[in-house]
Design a protein that fits this description.
By secondary structure, this protein is an alpha+beta fold. The chain is built from four helices and ten strands. 27% of the residues lie in helices and 28% in strands. The strands form two sheets. A five-stranded mixed beta sheet has the order 1-2-3-5-4. Strands 6, 7, 8, 9 and 10 form a five-stranded antiparallel beta sheet that branches. It binds cytidine-5'-diphosphate.
């Protein structure tokens, strides 16, 4: 959130720099089974974001100190590849990737039936190949698809979208310029079957009315994205 109000990102017709209206989601593709050695996997492109998720397990949790007697643990690792942005990222875990890994695990824990696998571990590896804003949303959404591809029992899939505010206009699914120079960013994780919310972060300022619009945009977009997820899983492979 740069919050530079002088950067014009909405034209006189209300269109955004990438040609979308305020409510439109960037184009999405989903392909499952992309990592043959994994138990489940998925590649998701969302705009120019490109993210691969591999799921391994359930397997015995090692070291034993991480084991839970009554349920499995989710071991989630979000990572941006060093070549995923124009500024080369220093390889390895940093504060941001730790935070995103944790909130992703927390959101997924609310849907995965962990109690079915005591003393086990389910490993979820999220690798961002190309980053164009909203990568935490793409990672969380793609992780849900990869877990389903692995046959892990879940009550629902998490669908995550980030809407926000740009030039005083609330817009759905922020792109890189909107994320960098906009005034607010509201990533949310929604369960489409129940309508529950399992993840919410907010950066910048929104009035209560703007917050409600961004919220509604995220929910509406989540239902759209959910359809693409279901189609990809039914089809198996590229959609
Ligand atoms: O990706 P997301 O919007 O979930 O997280 P962010 O921290 O708000 O980052 C927004 C965007 O900034 C990312 O998607 C990347 O395109 C870019 N970024 C970057 O270039 N280098 C970083 N170390 C972190 C983010």
């Amino acid at each position: 959130m740069g919050g530079y109000g002088d950067v014009q990102m909405i034209d006189e017709n209300g269109l955004r720099m990438d040609g979308r209206t305020a409510t439109q989601v960037r184009p999405i593709t989903i392909e499952t089974g992309v990592i043959p050695v994994a138990d489940g996997s998925c590649r998701m492109t969302w705009g120019t974001n490109d993210v691969i998720v591999a799921v391994y397990g359930p397997m015995e949790a090692h070291p034993r100190k991480i084991q839970r007697q009554d349920r499995a643990v989710l071991d989630v690792r979000y990572n941006m590849a060093p070549f995923s942005t124009s500024d080369r990222i220093r390889p390895g875990f940093n504060r941001r990737s730790r935070e995103i890994s944790k909130v992703t695990a927390d959101a997924l824990e609310s849907v995965v039936l962990l109690e079915m696998y005591p003393r086990s571990k389910i490993r979820v590896e999220i690798e961002v190949l190309c980053a164009e804003a909203g990568t935490r949303c793409v990672g969380l959404t793609a992780a849900s698809v990869a877990l389903a591809d692995a046959g892990i029992p879940m009550t629902d899939m998490v669908v995550s979208v980030a809407s926000g505010k740009v030039n005083d206009v609330v817009v759905c699914d922020l792109n890189k310029e909107e994320d960098n120079y906009g005034e607010a960013d509201l990533p949310m994780g929604v369960l489409p079957n129940s309508g529950e919310l399992v993840f919410l972060q907010m950066d910048g300022d929104l009035s209560p009315e703007e917050f409600q619009i961004a919220w509604d945009y995220n929910i509406q977009a989540a239902y759209e994205v959910h359809k693409i997820m279901i189609e990809a899983l039914k089809k198996g492979g590229a959609n």
